UniProtKB/TrEMBL annotation, chain A:
Keyword Transferase in record: yes
One Pfam family cited in the UniProt record for this chain: Acyltransferase
Stretch list, region Disordered: 425-445
Keyword Transmembrane in annotation: yes
Protein's recorded name: Phospholipid/glycerol acyltransferase domain-containing protein
Residue ranges with Polar residues bias: 429-445
Span of the signal peptide: none
Predominant place of localization: endoplasmic reticulum
Biological process according to GO: phospholipid biosynthetic process; triglyceride biosynthetic process
Membrane topology: Multi-pass membrane protein
Organism: Perca flavescens (American yellow perch)
Residues passing through the membrane, by range: 14-35, 145-163, 169-189
SMART domains from the UniProt entry: PlsC (SM00563)
TrEMBL record, chain B:
Stretches of the chain forming a coiled coil according to its record: none
Domain EF-hand positions: 26-61, 110-145, 151-186
Name of the protein described by the UniProt record: EF-hand domain-containing protein
Main location as per UniProt: membrane
Organism: Perca flavescens (American yellow perch)
Record-level GO BP terms: protein transport
Assigned GO CC terms: cytoplasm; nucleus; plasma membrane
InterPro entries: Calcineurin_B_homologous, EF-hand-dom_pair, EF_Hand_1_Ca_BS, EF_hand_dom
Protein family according to the UniProt entry: Belongs to the calcineurin regulatory subunit family. CHP subfamily.
Keywords: Calcium, Cell membrane, Cytoplasm, Lipoprotein, Membrane, Metal-binding, Myristate, Nucleus, Phosphoprotein, Protein transport, Repeat, Transport
CDD domains noted in UniProt: EFh
SMART domains: EFh
A Pfam family of this chain: EF-hand_7
Amino acid sequence: MEDFWAFALWALRIWLYLVISLIMIPAMFGFSLGISETYMTILVKTLEWATLKIQKGYADEQLEASASNGLIQREDGSMEKELEELRRSRPKPPVGGDFTLSDCFYFTRRGIESIVEDEVTQRFTSEELVSWNLLTRSHKDFQYISLKLTLVYSLGIFVRYCILAPLRITLACIGLTWLVIGTSAVGLLPNWRMKFWLSELVHVMCYRICARGLSATIHYHNRENKPQKGGICVANHTSPIDVVILCNDGCYAMVGQVHGGLMGVLQRAMVRSCPHVWFERAEMRDRHLVTKRLQDHVNDKTKLPILIFPEGTCVNNTSVMMFKKGSFEIGATIYPVAIKYDPKFGDAFWNSSKYSMVSYLLRMMTSWALVCNVWYLPAMHQQEGEDAVHFASRVKSAIAHQGGLVDLQWDGGLKRAKVKESFKEEQQKQYSSMVVGEDSSSNSD
Amino acid sequence: MGSRASTLLREEEIEEIKKETGFSHSQITRLYSRFTSLDKGENGTLSREDFQRIPELAINPLGDRIINAFFPEGEDQVNFRGFMRTLAHFRPIEDNEKSKNAAVSEPLNSRTNKLLFAFRLYDLDRDDKISRDELLQVLRMMVGVNISDEQLGSIADRTIQEADTNGDNSISFNEFIKASFVVRGNCMT
């Protein structure tokens, strides 16, 4: 028995040494031994092979699935255009307004379309994949296709749960502990230039270790546009991991609400070494206070750029939703950043109404890997005469365009709240103006 | 759990729905996963609230009427069969179906059935007649507060006058067909 424990301890020690020397040390200083690259190459090859196999097995069904648009009839056009089409051969009556019984078809078709497929609710569920990626959690369940594929799938389970998961959990624990200890220690130093430098070093190191803990392969594009001090970095939001991804390449000041639990410990430690902007829950409601504190931060040119996710909620990385105007009212330089994950290797979207933070992280750590592209876009400024809402939507379009995401006008808050009545009124107004004409709608009640 | 639920749909059930609605196997499973993702109560049926949670439907002026079309009279839950039956009205007519003998049993997406669907949007009390009052109420839903009562009243009067052939001051289904599609027959086909 003694021997067994001695052996276990020895094995554990070797394991830790290996982790530290082969992964942590390289990660801390930002170079790589090529292990993760080799893993990625094997992974990409395996998935390509699996895709081919699956497609062979389902040659006919693939064709059908791609025709999902054939579910119901669809047309894309404005209300004016479509109603005109519906009324094409009807003469416009001279008095009494232009209404026909068939006008309801336009609304019906639109309604049925949204029941079959809509732009909003689908953004809050996992993205659908073209082909199964050998993870049972994606929308396609395990299917028996061939013996070879099943073997690869089982091997995948073994590798992901028995080798990668323990490794990644160890790394994440080390990374987070290091963050707490490191930032607290740096926080004790006096406010010299040395402190900022050390603080940045500690932050970046921890995030790099955490990124290894997710097997993150991140491609940064156009680094010459990296956010500068005294600016605000805005990005599309998929999950809390976005922060780790962005901070791998430089430090940001975080803005957010004070949390309890594990997050709270991290937040308190981090704020000691570098000025993040945390708000109490009650303070968040006070818009003036929030704006004021952000403004103060931005005006102090020695402070790190602020990182904000103006969508205010996690979206499944297929689209960008409405940007809340708050961060665009401050008048600072905006540095847009587009983040796009590759869904093939694992779904990065945090469905917060379905999974807790910890179970989400465990899912991430048992996925194949995290592959993502980050594009730094050129800095943007508010134009003269442009209000915050338009500026926000201009920045959003730029991000959507760069990341290959769908640019949506909808508010991400719809994940939990109901749609405002005013949107319906807008539709009614538009239709009314078609029925009675623009001029007469203005003088009615 | 979306993926687990999709396996709950039995093969026989799919076959029956296929026969009834004309949707293909993969279309049915696809719509089933949509159905389960809308089903927040996770009880295998949808309520009116489940539909209203779709923002694009909630802002549709006739959204409530469309939602209502999914629910048989007096019921406030719809199961997957019923959901599919209503959706089938809007399934596109495929080329190979047009040549088939339609007289055997009329498919849900036939022109008449589509028109019946539209007719029922106006027929609030389900008495197979659109009265002036019903027409006014639906018109009000479509235009909101933007048109005066007076003006809307005259629109309703004119519409009924044009469509009403037997002088009972309301529109029957037959009159509805003639009125809206004398001039333009292929609105929904």
